[in-house]
Amino acid sequence: MTQVRPTAAASASLWERDEEVAAVERAVDSLCADRSSSGGLLVFRGEAGLGKTALLAETRRIAEARGCTVWSARGGETLRSVPFNVVRQLLQPALVSMLPEEAREYLGDWYDIAGPALGIAEPGDRQADPQGVCDGLVAAVRRLARRDWPLVLLIDDAHWADQETLHWLAGLAERLDEMSVLVVVTRRPEEVSGASARHLDTVAAAAHGPATTLSALTPAATAGLTRATLGEHADAAFCREVWAVTAGNPYDAVELLARVQDSELEPVEARAGELRDLNRSARGGGLVARLEELGIDATRFAWAAAILGTGISIDLVAKLATLRPDDARRCAELLRTARILTAPDPATGRSADGDLEFVHPLIATAVYNSIPDALRTAMHGIAARIVADEGHGAAAAARHLLEVHPDDDEELVGQLREAAREHLAVGAPDAARRCLERALKEPPRAESHPQVLYELAEATFLTAPARTIGHLRAALGMPGLHGGQRVDAVFRLSQALLHNDQLEEAVRTVEAEAARLQPGPDRMRLQAAQFMWEGLHAGEAASPGRSQRLADLARPCTGRDNSERALLILRGFDALMHGENAEEVAELCDRALVNGRLAPGFGWTDTEWGIELLLMLANAYGFTDRLDRAETLYNEALRAYETAGWSGGHLALAHAYVGIGHRRRGRLKEAEASLREALRLAERVGRGLPLYWSATCSLVDTLLARGQVEQAWEVAERHGFAPPYPSTIVLPDPRSVRGRLLLAVGRTKDGINELEAAEKAAAARGHHNPVLVPWAADLARALRTEDPARAARLAVDVRRQAERFGTDTAIGEALRCAADLETGQRAVRLYGQAVTYLEASPCQYEHAAARIEFGIAARSAADLHRGLDLAVSCGADGLAERARAALRAGVGPA
């Protein structure tokens, strides 16, 4: 918690800040009004020295006067590479003050996820999900806000905050309506770019009102400040020169006036010409010159403090500056007197973190930049060793190691690799990337070079697939990766190619490597990967003979190891897509399980195979009417990702498929809720990805089933659910769902065209499962008046394919389609047969639809009432209204 409490001089920086202070008072009063009040966010922008820090000090004073708990932190220009630096300053003291058991109980399930990032818990042995860590930190604030209400968080110099903190701050800003906490942020404009700038833009967009831009002081305000500091006798010409020299910058004005007092300069026009020289000594070269006047020891002390940047203790500085303890204490006092360093305010709770801090970031920057380049580099190297010797770990030392010149030092490479592992374990892959990229510049020795590239690919895998591809290709082109590690690198390369929309190259990569290997588990793993990527491809045509090759390879597999289990799953999914017998599909999947459970190494958070294979397994059960087993797998995935803190694409897909399970079961309201949550999470990962399509497509399908056509269209329009379609398979088939949507909104011709496009795409891939790719039934219904002969042929094909597949749902839906094309008793008979099959199906929405259609055709009030009850329990409002309308009309044909 960095000091922001105003001194008498600093408070002068509040001149002409009445509007900003009033905004702070309103925000604090709103926070304190009620424990249930929603949070607030204020953002103040301004160039260096315009009084941002002083405004936060006044915010602290106002908030504490009203009984608020206030925590604060500050970004540092030389500390941006330290992950979670600012959020740790902010939250760590409150959690460290608790007993370990109390902190664990307080954070609950988030302790193991957010605790390592905050430095209060040991990291796990696997890579943490950055989004999960971010969500855990948001949850920590939510819980602390309940304990410490009313809570105010102050973040100074957010433009210098580390990227991980800014990610958290953006997430917090979007969730402030859910917690009673006030956040006040200051930043400079135009100081950051890339991801950090995007996070700060998100924060600004969430603020209550536009960000306030601080302006320089007017001549009148500068005159008032001058007279308040020097006395009312300061004449007008002198005051005007103070304004001219400082350009109305409050920090410069305060420092200049302090120099005037130190020099006992008379504030009269005759002495005004001396102000420029005094001003130059307050910052930049003048500050450096003033520092040198204090002596070489004080200069070395200040340099060492600037190198450390944070946690500036006199003992550490003495070691780095090679000063005796007595000399170090004397230098510290000199620098405090010269207003270069100051003691942290004990009220912030951070006095144990260091004895000193710079009075202002401008001073810290000027001192750091004044260190000769070669000496600065050498001091960072010494600082790294000192930090490591103090037991702070490789990650803490890495900030300094990043600044050391490359020198073919294998020990330094090892330290950076260890730091990268620590960064990955707490959810900071970007920090890990910086360490490993620096390690490559050393460079590593030949035997470790491919290992560094492989580890770098791990750091960039989630955020930069194109970079990952380059790193892995380079690693695989060198000697050094052998056996299972080489196979894993090839598999990871194929995954990165897939995520980079280079699916065909992903297939060729694993195919070529598999051809080099002898028969065995490694080769089988890569063969399975090839079939997996080919099976996910939604291109124009399947590779010739693929299904037969897969069937031949899987036929002798008994599921004795995970490579064989993978092939069995892939064969089962392929058979599902082609509409082969559902019993055989389920039998293949059963052989891939161990006692009905996922085998060790096949868990949802295991990285050896990835999520795609397990989703194929779950979907094979889900669309063969084995919904109990499918929903068990879907929910296991959801629990696994929530427990592990994986809040990105994996959790989005888990929610999407839980929603699909609800949709298949006929729980449409629950399906809609899960799919909307999936879509919310998917938007954080990025539009256009397969997971985004899965959530959008299933939500549109669910809303159509509910009879909410306008909402379905609005979702489709807002989320871009239209051609071109992704290159990977999406379930249910997006062309079929969009075709049904177009028919529902009255765009019949467009709907028919879309369904015919679905027909061509399915034929090219050999996807003949009428449950997964249901274009034919909807097209038959659309053509029953325009082209009844073609509609009849389509209905016959649907029934033939459904009977080949063999599930009650498929056959019942095919009979419904046939009945929709008939009239009279033939329609009644077909609807009755559909009811018989769908009553035995786990898909209650389809059963409700068939029961209502039969009730209308057979003029059966009993069936209409039963169908109405089913429709209501499903949340199928459109079906329910149709049943009610028929009952009101006296039960007759629609």
From TrEMBL:
The keyword Transmembrane does not apply. Residues 16-184 form the Orc1-like AAA ATPase domain. One of its GO terms (molecular function) is ATP binding. It holds the Pfam family TPR_8. Keywords: ATP-binding, Nucleotide-binding. InterPro entries: AAA_16, P-loop_NTPase, TPR-like_helical_dom_sf, TPR_rpt. The keyword Zinc-finger does not apply. This is ATP-binding protein. It comes from Streptomyces tibetensis. The lineage of its organism: Bacteria, Bacillati, Actinomycetota, Actinomycetes, Kitasatosporales.
